[in-house]
């Protein structure tokens, strides 16, 4: 507004200028149409100042993303309504908060976690989230079903604090880069992971093929993140649909040990600049740049198998691929992946044979390290030679 950045405190109905800390009361109207106007006592309002040591314009001249400490900040505002998802657009338009979704009369299923709000199947949010989910997943798992969709309310104290931190980071990044480049993205995890992330935020980054950070996949690619999910005792898997501040991203080389931006010019990483399959949010940013919005629970009659990353037309091909042993597969792909990656596969296979984890976990690691494209071409080559 007017070239300045403001924070609106709806608890006290005041507008706070972030650069100077000056407060100004605002008028408002209640649901019954009654108007409330602030007092005109200039001594108590215009001169009141909140000590917020965030000077965006001056700080950014020295260091685009270096933030000063905040002393005695105002209480965080209540969470605004969630944005309306648009399946046809990837998120630049979603940096602004949209209108709340329209609830329907259909009773939603009770969520597994009491601090999540169930979303009914007739709700607009349910339709948009499921559209993003099924767009790719049904190509791999024709019989896949969504068992529930839940919304992260961010109404408890920790959740409100994380929401406030995300909004503040969004404003800082937008000021530094011109655009915060906010995108929706999927994150696969276990039931325990959902509980921990929604309650306490992200606490453990992934050590994967493109550095160490939190791995998320683009909104139209939930399948990649589903490979990182885990089946619970009820046969369900879980994906979180998150809002992510990408800022300015850089390409992270395969088998990189990177765990932070390579310079102050970058905020996040991707595996490919043109057509990314993975977004990488570094551990230093994971609780300011990622905000979980929805939790999708789903079941699939088809197990995740390394031998069948996509449907095959011939049952003979499926059978031949299924019977390929891990040592044979490793021998076939050895020359096509870096030596460090192959050593990782060998060590993982030894741990699998020792009973440290199951076949499904090994398969997820193989897919992550080798990639679906290489696995498909390898299996097809073996079939042709037969």
UniProtKB/TrEMBL annotation:
Cellular localization per UniProt: Nucleus
Main location, first listed in the record: nucleus
One GO CC term, this protein: nucleus
Gene: RCD1
InterPro entries on file: Poly(ADP-ribose)pol_cat_dom, RCD1/SRO1-5, RST, WWE_RCD1
MF terms in GO: NAD+ poly-ADP-ribosyltransferase activity
PARP catalytic domain sequence ranges: 102-315
Pfam families membership: PARP, RST, WWE_5
SUPFAM superfamilies reported in the protein's UniProt record: ADP-ribosylation, Formin homology 2 domain (FH2 domain)
Name of the protein described by the UniProt record: Inactive poly [ADP-ribose] polymerase RCD1
Keywords recorded for this protein, A-Z: Developmental protein, Nucleus, Stress response
UniProt entry tagged with the keyword Membrane: no
Entry superkingdom: Eukaryota
Keyword Transit peptide: no
Transmembrane segments: none
Bias-annotated ranges (Pro residues): 72-85
Residue ranges, annotated region (Disordered): 65-91
Domain RST per the UniProt entry, residue ranges: 317-386
